[in-house]
């Protein structure tokens, strides 16, 4: 008998038919002889609707009361799912985050889980019940209701799985696993049976919107085996776990593309200490997330600094950069929002030199110019013109042996 | 400085403008130098919407999960009201029933309050905050969420007022007080400045839908002064409290009418012990609420039994009565759903004999036939043909000196 934690997102429980569908899956897992704990998100757009209601009352509502309001979303889901499972004849109980004892810090609207108490969960499981837990929410030691911020239900699922030492934490989404590339862009993409936490982290932050990076990190830290599955079919999913050296058969596991990229360059920057700091502190103050940064020595004592931001932030970022340019006496600011980022990810890269060179060669053969490069131990990313993104992804996917037979 | 508990119903917090309106009233009460605790219901039809959602999943959902679901309604209200008060610049905090420590028994969907803990409430008040409490909900000693059933928010308000020894518990509704009769039926009706708990109880159960009988009983037991007010104007309301003998100036305080009445009669019942029991046990098993019961000896050894039920229950009640008729050998069952109940209520009746006779005389003078009579210490009710209800109410209102000058 395995102990399985399942997490269903908001689209999976949007409306009575979908709730019943999830109930059937949960009951099937139980009847196959497993203990089951289920984490659910708020139905569909409920969280967004609640936020809109709050903003009709106050442009800037207190975070504590926001959490009080938002926590009703998951409470609605757990009650309805428990009813649907009860209707199928299985013993079941729903529990809010506070009822489970999901202890968080007191940073309302983006609290962090400090501890998950197992007492209540184990007691209900011991009574033979399926246990439904509200995702996204917890309680401070002062009995205050908190929420975990975006992707919080994934984090709840992984934290509960870690606390219970579950055999697997299945994350149900609208895709049935992690692919070597987005199949809409690269038709030859294959589903990966296994991927390492680190690769998943890189893919997650590169725009493969399957798992929240925070929950993958949490899984890695707590050795929780994750499985990404679809709630709309019965296909085998993708396991996310620690992959041993021997298992690293593929040098590159996936190719990712991201069009939400704009590149800004500050030209002819005097080569003095503190210049980069001035620029990036100013950007951080405006809550602008900077992704890649490249500084290149062009001539003696003069640099160019180039960096990328999300396109939503472009205008504000250009304004800030222009202000800094005037202060430090750089020559000009240029920007380009017709660029994209293409990346290859693979844990095998560490032990296979020449992968980056291979990537550059592949892009060169396709006649694609590279504007910026950034590397980590298991990833190489290049900024290219957006128009070439699809061609680049397909070429790299083929080059690194990822196309399906 | 007074400690005032205010309760606002669902219509008062339906939509952002109404929430802001309630916030202004609460803040005004606070700024007038009072400590304020506010109890709110779920917005508008939210409770009914949630029940409908549950029934799309299960025809008969488990009561515990129903409570889990329904409790989200009031949690939504308290968060939004707290945001609106915060927006007006007053310190405020919202608390769920469990957070306050409203301890109930474990009869889900109609739990009874066992105890209200004052610790958290007093601590927040001492910090100068307006405290918003979710009505209708509580927690068992096992940490389970419960709801109190219909009118539960009124009960929460009275229980919180009793626990805090509040100076007054103001119940805000869509009428601005308790009237000597429904002003839509009796245009001469006057608002009562004061009414006793017992009179209010009789009026409440006679169809004057102002206060839930349970909350009035609770107020009486705990000596909580209630005040019924409108949330849409600033008129003085009606105080509900213990009225001393000296204050009982009026013999009759109010006239009530109820059209939701159907009369059933079982004819030629053999006069044996256990017949009435057989009938009313059978009706109770079908959860049919019986109001008035009259048994009359017609001839030697043969009785008629007549009783009234709500019109929704008529068909089922006739079926049950027909079944019992066959078992016990009575002659026939008749029924009439074109009847109504007219009642006079007044604490002064106890010490003023002849009030009932006065009532019958008044109805006779109007040419209105009486089908059934039922009396208590402070109430006389008559079943009459429905077509005469308005005339009866107006005549009685005038007869007992209730018309406004």
From TrEMBL, chains A, B:
Q: Which species does this protein come from? A: Neomoorella stamsii
Enzyme class, first EC level, given as a word: transferase
Gene Ontology CC: one annotated term? cytosol
Family, per entry: Belongs to the aspartokinase family.
Q: Its Enzyme Commission number?
A: 2.7.2.4
InterPro entries attached to this UniProt entry: AceGlu_kinase-like_sf, ACT-like_dom_sf, ACT_Aspartokinase, ACT_dom, AKii-LysC-BS, Asp/Glu/Uridylate_kinase, Asp_kin_monofn, Asp_kinase
Asked if the Swiss-Prot or TrEMBL record annotates the protein with the keyword Kinase, the reply is yes
User: Which pathway does this polypeptide act in?
Assistant: Amino-acid biosynthesis; L-methionine biosynthesis via de novo pathway; L-homoserine from L-aspartate: step 1/3; Amino-acid biosynthesis; L-threonine biosynthesis; L-threonine from L-aspartate: step 1/5; Amino-acid biosynthesis; L-lysine biosynthesis via DAP pathway; (S)-tetrahydrodipicolinate from L-aspartate: step 1/4
Q: Which keywords, in A-to-Z order, does the entry hold? A: Amino-acid biosynthesis, ATP-binding, Diaminopimelate biosynthesis, Kinase, Lysine biosynthesis, Nucleotide-binding, Transferase
- What gene is it encoded by? lysC_1
Any idea where the ACT domain is? 264-347
Name the domain of life: Bacteria
Concerning PANTHER family, the annotation shows:
ASPARTATE KINASE, ASPARTOKINASE
Give GO terms for biological process.
diaminopimelate biosynthetic process; homoserine biosynthetic process; lysine biosynthetic process via diaminopimelate
Gene Ontology molecular function terms on file: aspartate kinase activity; ATP binding
For this protein, what reaction is catalysed? Answer: L-aspartate + ATP = 4-phospho-L-aspartate + ADP
Q: Which PROSITE patterns does the record match to this protein?
A: ACT, ASPARTOKINASE
Coiled-coil segments: none
Q: Which residues bind substrate?
A: 47, 74
Task: Provide the residue positions that the database annotates as binding ATP.
Answer: 7-10, 173-174, 179, 184
- What is this protein for, i.e. what is its function? Catalyzes the phosphorylation of the beta-carboxyl group of aspartic acid with ATP to yield 4-phospho-L-aspartate, which is involved in the branched biosynthetic pathway leading to the biosynthesis of amino acids threonine, isoleucine and methionine.
What name goes with this protein? Aspartokinase
- Keyword Cytoplasm attached: no
């Amino acid at each position: 008998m395995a102990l399985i934690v399942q997490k269903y997102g908001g689209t999976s429980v949007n409306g009575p038919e979908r709730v019943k569908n999830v109930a059937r899956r949960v009951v099937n897992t139980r009847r196959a002889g497993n203990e089951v704990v289920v984490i659910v998100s708020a139905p569909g757009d409920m969280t967004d609707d609640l936020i809109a209601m709050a903003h009709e009352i106050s442009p800037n509502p207190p975070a504590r009361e926001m959490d009080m309001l938002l926590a009703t979303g998951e409470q609605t889901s757990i009650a309805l799912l428990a009813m649907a499972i009860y209707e199928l004849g299985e013993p079941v109980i729903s529990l809010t985050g506070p009822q489970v004892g999901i202890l968080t810090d007191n940073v309302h609207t983006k609290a962090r889980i400090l501890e998950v108490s197992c007492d209540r969960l184990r007691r209900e499981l011991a009574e033979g019940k399926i246990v439904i837990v509200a995702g996204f929410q917890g309680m401070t030691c002062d009995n205050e209701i908190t929420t975990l911020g975006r992707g919080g239900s994934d984090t709840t699922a992984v934290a509960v799985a870690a606390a219970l030492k579950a055999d697997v934490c299945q994350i149900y989404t609208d895709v049935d696993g992690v692919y070597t590339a987005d199949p809409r862009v690269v038709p030859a993409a294959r589903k990966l049976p296994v991927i390492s936490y680190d690769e998943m982290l890189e893919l997650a932050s590169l725009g493969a919107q399957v798992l929240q990076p925070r929950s993958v990190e949490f899984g890695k830290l707590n050795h929780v085996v994750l499985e990404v599955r679809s709630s709309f079919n019965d296909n085998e999913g993708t396991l996310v776990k620690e992959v041993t050296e021997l298992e690293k058969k593929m040098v590159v596991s996936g190719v990712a593309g991201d069009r939400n990229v704009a590149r800004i360059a500050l030209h002819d920057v005097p080569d003095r200490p503190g210049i980069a700091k001035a620029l990036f502190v100013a950007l951080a103050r405006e809550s602008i997330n900077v992704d890649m940064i490249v500084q290149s020595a062009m001539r003696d004592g003069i640099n160019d600094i180039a960096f990328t931001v999300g396109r939503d932030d472009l205008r504000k970022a250009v304004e800030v950069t222009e202000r800094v340019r005037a202060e430090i006496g750089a020559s000009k600011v240029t920007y380009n929002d017709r660029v994209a980022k293409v990346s290859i990810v693979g844990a095998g890269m560490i032990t296979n030199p020449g992968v980056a060179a291979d990537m550059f060669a592949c892009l060169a053969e396709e006649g694609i110019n590279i504007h910026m490069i950034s590397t980590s131990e298991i990833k190489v990313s290049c900024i290219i013109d957006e128009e070439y993104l699809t061609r680049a992804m397909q070429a790299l996917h083929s080059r690194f042996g990822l196309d399906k037979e």
